[in-house]
Specification:
This protein has 453 residues and is α/β, with parallel strands linked by helices. It contains 16 helices and 15 strands. The longest helix is centred in the C-terminal third of the chain and has 26 residues. The site of pyridoxal-5'-phosphate (PLP) has 14 residues, from helix 7. The site of pyridoxal-5'-phosphate has 14 residues, from helix 7.
C-alpha cells in the first residue's frame, strides 16, 4: 500500500460498520512488504516471484496476435464460471505431466491458486471450524484462513514434509474435544515456505488417514513441475483418485503469475458449492488470459519453458546455499530444496526475525519473517528466503547483508549472556555424502563454519 495506513481516528468513523470478520483479518507477510521491496535499492529475497524475464517476447506476441485475428470479440467477453473448455484441455495436459488423469468436467478454472484457497475455505469453514495445516504453512493462506475465522492447528514439518505420523493422535484429540477438522491443507512438493517435500510413505499415510476418517485434504501444488533434482513423488490426488483429495493447480509458477489463472479439481458435490462461491466472487476468470494460455500451449513449448526455468532456479538455489554457508553464523540451519523457490532458515531462538527484518531493511535487504507462516505465533526465529526472483550475484549480496545482521545479533547475545564461546562446529556433508535420488528432495543441512575473513 503506498498510502499511509488509516489512523485510529479515521477508523473510528467507520468502526461500527465493519463486520466482525474484519477483526480477524490479517495482512499477508509478503504483500505488506511489497511497497518497500519494490524500491530499486532493496534486494528482496521476500517475494515468491518466478523468473519472468526469460519468457520469449515473440511467443507472447504470437499468442496475442492469434487472439486478435481469431477470437477478439470472445476474448473481450464474459465466459462461463467454470472456465473455457480450451483452457481446461491445457490443464488436462499439465496434470497428465504429473500422472494425474482428469476430466475437464471435474475442475473449475480460477483467478490464480489463491482463489482456490479462498473458495475452498468459504465453502467449508464456519467461524471456529478447524483446519489442519503444516507448520510452517503457505504465508498467503494465513490471511485467508483468518478472514473466515478458521481455527488452524499446525502439524510440524521436517525434511520429509508434514509429520503425518502425528496426525492420528492430533485428530483423536480434536475429535475428543468435538472439533472435527473440515480439511487438511498441505503443500506436499517443494513447500512454500519450507522448501521441503513430503516423502512417499507419508503421502500414502496421509491419503489412508483421509480415507479412513473421511476427511477432505486440499493439496496445493504450484511447484510439483519445478523440480531440478531427485525423482518425482506421486501427488496425493493420484494416490487417492480424487475421493477425499481436492487439488489446487496454477499457471503462476510454470508460466506467469500475471496471467492470474489457477484451477481446482474436487469431488462433484464440493465443486458445485465452489462454483456458487465463484459466481458470487467474480463471475468468471479472465477470458483474455484463458485464451492467451491456450494460444501459448498451441505453440508446443510449455514444457521446454519449464525446463529452462528449472535450470535458472537450480543455479540460483546453489548460489543461495553457497552464500548461506559462507555468510550465516554456524548456529543457523536451513533446508536444501530439490525444486521450487524457497529456503527456510532457522536461527537460534533468541533471534526474533520480525525485529531482525526492520534492521535488515535499513541495509536494504528483505526476507519473510517466519511468524507470517503460522497462525499460532510460532516461527519467530525462522525466515523464508526466495531465490527465484534475483540473479546469483544479487542473491549472494542479499544473503551477505542478512548474514551480517544475524551475526550482529548473535554477537550481542553472546556479550549480554557471556555465552560468546561458540559450540563445536557441526560437520557439513561432503558432496559425496549429500542426499541423492528421491531423497534429495529436501534436507536440513548442518551449518558450515563461517569462512575466515
Ligand atoms: C503454495 C501456494 N499456493 C498458492 C499460491 C497462489 O498463487 P497464485 O494465486 O498466483 O496461483 C502460491 C503463490 O505463491 C503458493 O506458493
Amino acid at each position: 500500500m503506498s498510502r499511509p495506513r488509516s489512523t485510529k481516528r479515521d477508523l473510528e468513523r467507520y468502526a461500527g460498520l465493519f463486520s466482525s470478520r474484519t477483526r480477524e483479518m490479517k495482512s499477508s507477510a509478503m504483500r505488506d512488504m511489497m511497497a518497500v521491496t519494490q524500491r530499486p535499492e532493496v534486494i528482496s529475497l521476500a517475494g515468491g516471484l518466478p523468473e519472468t524475464g526469460n519468457f520469449p517476447p515473440e511467443s507472447f506476441a504470437a499468442a496475442a496476435q492469434r487472439i486478435a485475428d481469431e477470437s477478439c470479440a470472445r476474448a473481450l467477453q464474459y465466459g462461463p464460471t467454470e472456465g473455457l473448455d480450451e483452457l481446461k484441455a491445457c490443464i488436462v495436459e499439465v496434470m497428465a505431466a504429473e500422472e494425474m488423469p482428469v476430466d475437464g468436467d471435474d475442475m473449475i478454472v480460477t483467478t490464480g491458486g489463491q482463489q482456490v484457497i479462498d473458495l475452498v475455505t468459504k465453502t467449508l469453514i464456519d467461524p471456529g471450524d478447524v483446519i489442519v495445516a503444516e507448520g510452517p504453512t503457505y504465508p498467503g493462506a494465513v490471511p485467508t484462513f483468518s478472514s473466515y475465522q478458521a481455527h488452524v492447528v499446525h502439524v510440524d514439518v521436517d525434511a520429509e514434509g508434514m509429520k503425518v505420523e502425528l496426525l492420528d493422535d492430533l485428530l483423536d484429540r480434536l475429535e475428543g474435544e468435538g472439533r472435527r477438522p473440515k480439511f487438511i491443507y498441505t503443500v506436499p512438493s517443494f513447500q512454500n515456505p519450507a522448501g521441503v517435500t513430503m516423502s512417499l510413505p507419508r503421502r500414502r499415510q496421509l491419503v489412508e488417514i483421509a480415507n479412513r476418517r473421511e476427511l477432505l485434504v486440499l493439496e496445493d501444488n504450484p511447484y510439483g513441475l519445478l523440480r531440478y533434482e531427485g525423482a518425482a513423488n506421486p501427488t496425493l490426488r493420484s494416490l487417492d483418485g480424487g475421493v477425499y483429495v481436492m487439488y489446487l493447480g496454477t499457471f503462476s509458477k510454470i508460466l506467469s503469475p500475471g496471467i492470474r489463472l489457477g484451477w481446482v479439481v474436487a469431488p462433484p458435490p464440493v465443486l458445485e458449492k465452489i462454483n456458487l462461491g465463484k459466481q458470487a466472487a467474480d463471475l468468471c476468470s479472465s477470458t483474455l488470459s484463458q485464451l492467451m494460455v491456450r494460444a501459448y500451449f498451441d505453440q508446443g513449448i510449455w514444457r521446454d519453458y519449464i525446463d529452462s526455468l528449472n535450470e535458472i532456479h537450480r543455479a540460483r538455489r546453489d548460489a543461495m546455499l553457497d552464500a548461506l554457508a559462507e555468510f550465516f553464523p554456524r548456529q543457523a540451519e536451513w533446508t536444501r530444496p530439490g525444486g521450487g523457490l524457497f529456503v527456510w532458515v532457522t536461527l537460534p531462538d533468541f533471534i526474533d526475525t520480525t525485529d531482525l527484518l526492520a534492521r535488515a531493511l535499513r541495509d536494504n535487504v528483505a526476507f519473510v519473517p517466519g511468524e507470517g507462516a503460522y497462525l499460532d505465533g510460532r516461527g519467530r526465529s525462522s525466515m523464508r528466503l526466495n531465490f527465484s526472483g534475483s540473479d546469483e550475484d544479487t542473491i549472494r549480496e542479499g544473503v551477505r547483508r542478512i548474514g551480517e545482521v544475524v551475526a550482529e545479533q548473535v554477537a550481542l547475545y553472546g556479550t549480554l549472556t557471556g555465552e560468546d564461546r561458540p559450540p563445536e562446529p557441526k560437520r557439513s556433508p561432503s558432496a559425496e555424502e549429500a542426499p541423492k535420488g528421491e531423497d534429495a528432495g529436501a534436507r536440513v543441512l548442518p551449518m558450515r563454519r563461517r569462512r575466515a575473513g
